[in-house]
Amino acid sequence: MVDISRLDFNLTTTFLALWEERSVSRAAKRLSLSQSAVSASLGRLREAADDPLFVRTRGGMQPTLRAIAMAEPLQGGVALIQNAFSTVTAFDPATSRQHFSIGMSDDFQIAIGPLITRRLAEEAPRVSVTFRQANTHRVEALFEAGEIDFAVVAQPNVRSGLQRQEIGRSGYACLLDQVACDLTLPLTLENYLSLPHLLVSFSGREGIVDQALKDLGHSRRVQSALTHFSALPPFLVGTRAVATLPVHAAQSLAAVSGLTVCAAPIDLGDYSVSILWQRTADNLWMRQMMSDAFLAISPDLEAIYSG
Length: 307
What we know:
It comes from Gluconobacter cerinus. This is LysR family transcriptional regulator. The protein is of the alpha/beta class. The chain contains twelve helices and twelve strands. Strands 4-3-5-12-6 form a five-stranded mixed β-sheet. Helix 1 packs across helix 2 and helix 5 crosses helix 12. The longest helix is centred in the C-terminal third of the chain and has 23 residues. The model has no long low-confidence stretch (mean pLDDT 89).
């Protein structure tokens, strides 16, 4: 006998996806999971049922007699669960006690995180949020593990099953202590190259600036390398040095540190910023709040580029 209290009911959705798709790859796509995750779930199903359940043939994954007997009861059970939840009232931010987990790199946490929490305090005082460190490389794994509900990322490589809403564009700017650097603005390429640089990079080795300078036949002297943008102000205040970083983070750090933001003297291009979420888990109000937070800082971005 299977101990039902220890059974993961997510296995039911995997079983029914395999029953209807007759393919591990198609079931994985439907469930927004990797093929390896579906294969692992099938292994647990087989162990629980003490039966192969689905056998690979030229025509696809064919169900065994045991699987055929299980299909109808499981479909009925899932339907009952869906009906139970279909009467749930619409999300009301004023009364909801829901918790959200949002994945974003620290440049977005710096720029829009405070705006999100202030609006929550005003409009949804019982709603809580966790900001998880995430980037384009980690976000898929965080979604698969169920550790985040939404993500704000730059230039996402969207896989099947994740929904995407582009909310704007951003680019790069320089952050420095203008008095300590004893420079007049706009920053020239000559002055830019004469300054020691602080690099913020996941790898800690090089970034987009180095490639752009290399294309121009130049290089810079990196004095220190950091892994988080939030650490920059203490390194820059009172120091003759410059950092190049996403403009939305630069302006937010400047606002709390007295540092100066200026346009970079080289063309670093711009990039799209998007919200990602699971197809089966959405909250329009929360998405709109994240989008509004990014749009609120966008006019300042334009001023930096033009100024």
